[in-house]
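QA checklist item 7 of 12: single-chain prediction sanity check.
[x] sequence parsed
[x] length recorded as 393
[x] structure emitted
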Amino acid sequence: MGSNLFYFNVLVLVFVVSCINQVWSQGVFDVKAFGAAFLNAWKQACRSGGTVLVADGTYLVNTIQFSGPCKGGVTFTVNAVIVAPKGKSTANYWISFHGITGLNIQGNGTFDGKGPSAWPYNNCHDASSCQPLSPTLVLTNVYQALVHNIRLVDSKGFQMKIEEGENVTINNITIKAPADSPNTDGIHTGNIKYVNILNSNIGTGDDCISIGPGTTNITITRVNCGPGHGISIGSIGLRSTDQNVKGVKVQSCKMRSTQNGVRIKTYTSPYQVSVSDVTFQDIIMDKAQNPIIIDQKYCGGSKRCKALFSTLQGTSNVQVKDVKFIGVRGTSSSEIAVNLDCSSSKPCQGIELDNINLSLASGGKATSSCSNARVSSSGTQNPPPCQNRMPLM
């Protein structure tokens, strides 16, 4: 009996210790318990694989980076308002997550970048050189990550940047900034693979989503965009280090009163890189200014761009190929609803138009324009597809 009781007590002790360890490993570290010292709470969660909790109230947070590696997956739960300092900032980020495997950013809270206090200092459009204003949320070298349910408003620069990682999902988030806010791209990706963006509402002063160099295997589904510049691949070709973009699928999205609908933009530059294996499918346009556009003479209007590439006379060495536009429908606010303006030195190859139905919002007929593009079409074609216009070889 005594022996059995001894073993029973040992088993209970082992069970209790196991439970304690499990609770600790899944511990919740409320920043309030650390005097609102976010980094201290993060370090504890990172050591044990727990949760940082930001709840109840408003928190003013200066530039901060949460770094790994961590012992296990870490959850960052925001059920409050996190506010950036007012004024100009050109740091590489306001809030950064770096070097983490297994990251979950969640909650019903808001990241407020206080952009109106910084936007008057943005001169990148006119200056020959400039430093962009700080993005709100930056994820670098992050793997197996999920960002969901949060809100980002009024970033100084880009709202969210995801770079140099793998397997990142963005689900059910809201991003807002005024239509005239400069360079406030909603989500920007670069040098990353296997990205999934879905079920989100994005309205900004720039691209709702910008797919940058080195992005491969990205899927964008059920995203409502507007205001903004649409969903864009690019800009590509600005730097000699730019990598190929491949495996892009944008499906079941809506563009409302956007400057562009679905777009590929490449610089008039000497750098040889490619954009390939792209599908835009089941996209609804509601008074989009340029519903379908490939722009290989992009320079962004910046003096810096024109100074760098002034000798190229409007040619791009970026190869755009194997691009499908399927089931794109709705209204265009400009007469040219389909504009394929490709490079004379690297003409677009394998462009497919399948069941396109775009009407001019103000009445009348929309048109198509093609230059240096090899295009095939099938199904409904409104406006009528333009004829292939290829350079003389």
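[x] summary fact logged: The chain has three helices and 25 strands.
[ ] second reviewer sign-off
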